[in-house]
Write a structure and sequence with these properties.
Number of helices: 9
Mean pLDDT: 95
Distance between the termini: 49 Å
Number of domains: 1
Radius of gyration: 18 Å
Helix content: over 70%
Largest sheet: none
Shape: globular
Number of strands: 0
CATH architecture: Up-down Bundle
Structural class: mainly alpha
Length: about 220
Amino acid sequence: MADVRDMYIAHTLFRREFARLPDIILSIADGDIAGAETAGSHVAMLCTLLHLHHEGEDLVVWPKLAARGGAEADAIVPVMETQHHTLEQALARVGELLPAWRSSGRGGDGLADVFQQLLPALTEHMALEEREILPLAEKYITAAEWKTLVAHAMGAFPKKYLPVVFGMMMEEGDPAVIKDILKDAPLPVRLLMPVIGPPAATARNKRLRRARTPGL
C-alpha cells in the first residue's frame, strides 16, 4: 500500500517556503522591477507547485478514498475538497496580482497580504491531511496509485525548476525517501538530481537575498 512519507516532505517544503513569501515580497522596494521579477518568479514557481500538488490529490486521492474508505472517508474527504477550493481561490487571487507586480514593482503590499491570509488556511489543511487523510491513504490506496501524485506534479511542472524544488526538498527531507521518489525516474535524473538540486536551491536563495532592499 501507499508509502506516504513523501507527503510529509512536500508539506515541510510548503510550510517553510510559503511562510517566507510575505517577507520576501515586502523586502522589495516599491518600483524595483528587477527585484520584483526575481521574487515574483519564485512566487510563481511555488504557487504552480502547490496547485499541481492539490490537483493530483483532487484527481487521485479524494475519488479513491471516497470509493473505498466508507464512513471514514465520508467524514473527511468533503472537508478536504472544501479546503482545496478555498486555497485555490487564494492562488487565483495571486495570479491576478502577480503579473502587475512583476512588471512594475508596485502593489507588493496587496500581494503579501494574500499570502498572509493564505498561510493559516494552508497550515490547517496540511495538518488535518496528515492527521486524517494519510492514515486512510495507507489503508485504501496502493503504492502504484500513490506514485501517480508525484508523476502528475512533476510531469506538468516546468522542467527548469525541478532541480530547485528537489534541492528544497532535500533541505529537511529524509534522504531515503528522496531516493525512493527518484527511483522510477530515468537513470540520468536519479544520478544528477541529488547532485545539482542543493546548489540550485542555494543559488535561488542567494538571488532572493540580493534582490532584497537593505533596511526593508
